[in-house]
Amino acid sequence: xxxxxxxxxxxxxxxxxxxxxxxxxxxxxxxxxxxxxxxxxxxxxxxxxxxxxxxxxxxxxxxxxxxxxxxxxxxxxxxxxxxxxxxxxxxxxxxxxxxxxxxxxxxxxxxxxxxxxxxxxxxxxxxxxxxxxxxxxxxxxxxxxxxxxxxxxxxxxxxxxxxxxxxxxxxxxxxxxxxxxxxxxxxxxxxxxxxxxxxxxxxxxxxxxxxxxxxxxxxxxxxxxxxxxxxxxxxxxxxxx
Length: 241
Description:
The protein is α/β, with parallel strands linked by helices.
């Protein structure tokens, strides 16, 4: 269970922006640690009992921010918000591919960053639900425990990967359109950002599918959306009626 005060690690080389982030996050009652480079970031992660979210500047001294992003997902996965001066689609897709949950191009509004932090924390702590397990082949999704196993072995997912999988699994056998998934997982501000959805579907398939070229767990339904598992029989009968 998440601590009363979520712990946020700020990894930002620019002193002015770093202090603005610290002040804003502290004012909203978050526990904040801050470092100025990638070497200190690694030490801070080891020393922290648990970091819930990392705000990661990609332009860091001594250590490449891209490499740090690649290594953040070894073990317990924190939420990751990437902050970058590059405002282009290729950089955003690369960051998402490497494990980022959110990509913010500098300069950004602090209120926007705070909103993204709140949304990411909600993904980590969704409303409680009764125990329900969905099975599809060798995949077992336990919604109450927030756990997924493949052939009996736990699969480690990022907060956003988990939320996307849970949304699909709750409606197993039913196609969910892209706009619905984007709004449920990332919120109204990302309702048209299909790059996010495609990237995270690819990430889930890489972890869950036996053959990513012929997905059976997360199925693409034309240009409409995605479905968890085979089409539900009743839905098929309605469609053919």
